[in-house]
Amino acid sequence: MILFLGARPVVPRPAVLRPVAPRSVVPRPVTAPPVPPSPPVRPSPRVRRHGRGVTLTAPYRRIFAVPGTRAFTAANLLARLPMGMLSVSAVLMIAGTRGSYALAGAVVATGLTATALVGPLTARLIDRYGQSRIAVPATVIAALGSLSLLLCVHYDAPAWALFASYIATATTPNTGGMSRARWAHLFRGDPAARHTANSFEQAADELCFMLGPVLATLLCTAFLPEAGTAVAAALLLTGVLLFAAQRGTEPPVAPRTTGRPRSPLRLPGLSPLLLTFLATGAVFGSLEVVTIAFADVHGVRPAAGGMLALQAAGSCAAGLLYGLLRPTGPAGSRFLGCVAAMSALMPLPLAAASTGSLPALAVALLLAGMATAPTMVTGMGLLQSRTPAAQLNEGMTLAVTALLAGIAAGSAAGGWAVDHLAGPGPAYVMPATAAALALAVTMSRRKGLRSRAR
């Protein structure tokens, strides 16, 4: 009742005129009854859930609130998707038209070796002259190499022409490294934001390598054997052109020094990181080959792609969640913990394969993948803290080169294990061994991995 009265407007009563002599009348002030304070309004459950969601995604919302970050990220994702398409498309195109997986594998292996040699040189030029000035012509050369490979396959050119064409694709710039360099420049004074950005970039890598092979296989099998290579080259060129056009977030070119800059390989603490990346690449390479062989033995080879996608999905999800955590403690100790977690989870596929159950193996691959992204995120953060800004692209490309070399070695070791260890089930010991080797290297070089980065 009090609330009702308090809510009513209070209007003074009108004066009543009486036939008396006029006199001055002072009206009495009219005051409204006091209104009690309203009880606190509780937000609805939907609002509370939304509030928690905003808090949960706040680190990512904060980094993408910087002008220009969404534009260069979208363009870079478009340019990065072909990284998971080119090799698969080349194998399917060459094997489908020439009928030789050996020739297809040799061509791709040669291109991988050329990329490992040329990639750091391209990155050095990017550091010296800028992303837009070097990445665009380098991508044009790589796209022409893919187009040449497509034409050579289509018109039945000699085998040496296939090798020469695919070698030309080695000039493809490290698109992920260029994106990480932009984040490092934008948040050079904010380690927490760099951690979130590196986590997002690693999740993007996993997403592209998860979707790329699936898209390449669909294009090459549903349309033409050359369709995968053509689409990959077009996406790469379009994405790099759009990425290079975002000049507002491009890192400035460091001033030249009179002396010759020291190679990042000679920087203190970088060698242990590269060795760990090498062993981590061996985990990826052996896991892929052994999983394909396991599915083939059980008569479900088409399911191998989905099982490997689960491993990448686990890594992608873990990378995004890891980016929400605020890094604490020395970066070297965090890196050691991540490598130890990877070493502890990687034996799970071996245990699941011993049961012969495909669903159990799929779950084990999902869990095993959850430690790889945090390892790469922390490792890339360490690399950025130890590499001068003028050589950042070159340093990150060296890390990618170590990963590629490890993938090649792991693929060979996984194939050997499948043939010599009584089937693909026991061959899962190879990725577990590679993860243990990564932990051993990290622990043996623990002093070199200590960093002041937080």
List its salient traits.
globular; MFS_trans_sf; 454 residues; mainly alpha; 2 domains; transmembrane; membrane; Growth Hormone, Chain: A; 21 helices; MFS transporter; 72% helix; disordered N terminus; transmembrane helix
Q: What structural class do the secondary elements suggest? A: mainly alpha
Supply the number of structural domains: 2
Low-confidence stretches: 1-27, 29-33, 35-54
How many β strands by DSSP? 0
Radius of gyration: 30 Å
Distance between the termini: 61 Å
CATH-derived architecture of the largest domain: Up-down Bundle
CATH topology of the largest domain, by name, is Growth Hormone, Chain: A
Number of helices: 21
Helix content: over 70%
CATH hierarchy, class of the largest domain: Mainly Alpha
CATH superfamily (homologous) name of the largest domain: MFS general substrate transporter like domains
Mean pLDDT: 77
What is the chain-wise order of helices and strands? HHHHHHHHHHHHHHHHHHHHH
Query: How does the major sheet shape up?
Result: none
Q: Tell me, briefly, the overall form.
A: globular
As a percent range, the share of strand residues is under 5%
InterPro entries: MFS (IPR011701), MFS_trans_sf (IPR036259)
Keywords: Membrane, Transmembrane, Transmembrane helix
Protein name: MFS transporter
Pfam families: MFS_1
